[in-house]
Amino acid sequence: MIRSQTGRSTPWLLADLFICGIRYNAGYMDYMIARMDRLNHAQRRTVITRGISNTIVRRMNDKEYWRYFDDKTLFNATFARWVKRGWMRVDASTRPEDLAAFCQGKGALFAKPLEGSSGVGVERLEPEDCQDEAALLKRLREKGDCILEEALVQHPALARIYPGSVNTLRIATLIGDKEEGIVYAFLRIGNGRVMDNVDCGGMAARVDLETGLINTVAADKKGHEYARHPLTDAPITGFQLPCFEQAKQACLEAMRVIPQLRFVAWDVAITPEGPEFIEGNSFPSHAVPQFAAHYPDGIGILPEFERFISLS
């Protein structure tokens, strides 16, 4: 895959991948996403690779408290101020009548594994799927313990970009030794599926923290770039996010709820009523903020982290 993307020979790539692994703690996915084959030594030092990301998380986040983010029901309860949709836990104690009562009067629902990431195991349920609660409960139990959530309606402006998924903001907060606040913000956008996750074919575009404008093209994990959405032809670059200041404020307030977790990436939906949390990530993916398309000068996001913490 990297050979096809870069045009380099296999021996050259193997040698360079080895060098990047030793010098910069980079894995092959880091190399591919950041297009490290095109970067010089000074530029490569600014890429937040897997090894560097792991070091930041270990230093900033007490693993004893990860459960507040890893368990989706515990997250929803802890951050209930910013979670307004209906939800319920489904496990061995759930009765068909409990499920029927929850589904009554609701539209589409999402069933998600209680723990997990990258959209794995997420399933959208339509009202007709919920008519036989006994069959639905059996189907959900096959997933193991899971959470059932009411589907959100996103802001019309975001639906115009792509209506097939809720397109969410990924906003990372950091309570650092030098500074605290928001490190980065990206809009994640679906592309043919009901999820906007980049591991499920979605894309991401960088958001200017001051203005709320998308100031880059969108990009996916394969390196494709989009100034306009390939399915709707809606413009992406230059899009003004609605309710961005409110979304930032929500994340800045929420980052103090569990102070033992100092580096969190929040997934925020923008609804017609304002921002609402989808989930928080205590071990944020370093892929989303590191696509080469978002750093045309080759200088990665690491210097922005160094405003908050010392990495030397």
CATH hierarchy, class of the largest domain: Alpha Beta
**Through-space gap between termini:** 33 Å
The structural class is alpha+beta
State the CATH topology of the largest domain.
D-amino Acid Aminotransferase, Chain A, domain 1
Question: What's the number of structural domains?
Answer: 3
Question: Which CATH architecture of the largest domain is right?
Answer: 2-Layer Sandwich
Give the mean pLDDT. 92
Largest sheet, described in full? Answer: 7 strands, antiparallel
Assess the beta-strand content as a share of residues: 15-25%
Describe the structure.
- It is globular and about 60 Å long.
- The strands form two sheets. A seven-stranded antiparallel beta sheet has the order 9-8-7-6-5-10-11.
- The protein has three domains: 2-45, no CATH class; 60-78 and 154-306, 2-Layer Sandwich (D-amino Acid Aminotransferase, Chain A, domain 1); 86-150, ATP-grasp fold, A domain (Dna Ligase, domain 1), CATH 3.30.1490.
- By secondary structure, it is an alpha+beta fold.
- The chain is built from twelve helices and eleven strands.
- β5 (169-175) and β6 (180-189) form a beta hairpin.
- The model has no long low-confidence stretch (mean pLDDT 92).
- The longest helix has 15 residues, at 10-24.
- The chain has helices spanning 2-6, 10-24, 28-33, 41-44, 50-60, 67-70, 72-78, 96-103, 133-141, 156-161, 244-254, 302-306; strands spanning 87-90, 109-113, 123-125, 146-150, 169-175, 180-189, 203-207, 214-219, 225-226, 263-271, 274-281.
